[in-house]
Design a protein that fits this description.
Strand order of the largest sheet: 4-3-2-5-6
Shape: globular
Order of helices and strands: EHHEEEEHHEHHE
Number of helices: 6
Helix content: 25-40%
Distance between the termini: 13 Å
Strand content: 25-35%
Length: 140
């Protein structure tokens, strides 16, 4: 069981994404790398967790875990998703809808929103993958 957030958890998530048969359809036309920041929360997550992902040809080609959110400045990712740890936890557990989280500004997303909107119909892929990914949370 992988602990969220951690490099091991991210590696397992990447493995599941890269094995998913629907990923090719969902990734058609996707352009841009992605930065993800899980912000620290007192009593839950001591320090921010930062991941940088490079998708290419319907696969996640590269994953890097960075030491600090400012380290993303070096890469200038086309997309950036940032939220406190508890928001990510609720998203992963399926108790918070990602669209609702963005609309209510619980998660900040920067980048070409049109590309994201076009892929909303593939939201079930993420739900299915997160259900497969056995996760232990750092605050439990």
């Amino acid at each position: 069981m992988a602990r969220f957030p951690s490099k091991e958890w991210c590696e397992e998530a990447v493995r599941l994404v890269n094995e998913d048969p629907e990923r090719e359809l969902a990734a058609q036309g996707w352009q841009g790398d992605i930065g993800v920041i899980v912000d620290a929360e007192p009593g839950k997550l001591a320090r921010a967790f930062v991941a940088y992902v490079v998708p290419r040809d319907a696969r996640i080609e590269k994953l890097r875990v960075l030491d600090d959110p400012d380290d993303l400045d070096e890469f200038e990712p086309a997309y950036l998703a940032r939220a406190p740890y508890s928001v990510w936890k609720h998203l992963l557990q399926g108790s918070l809808d990602p669209v609702e989280a963005v609309l209510r500004r619980r998660i900040a997303v920067k980048g070409d929103i049109q590309q994201l909107v076009e892929r909303l119909r593939f939201k079930g892929i993420a739900d299915r993958l997160f259900a497969q990914l056995k996760t232990e949370y750092v605050d439990e």
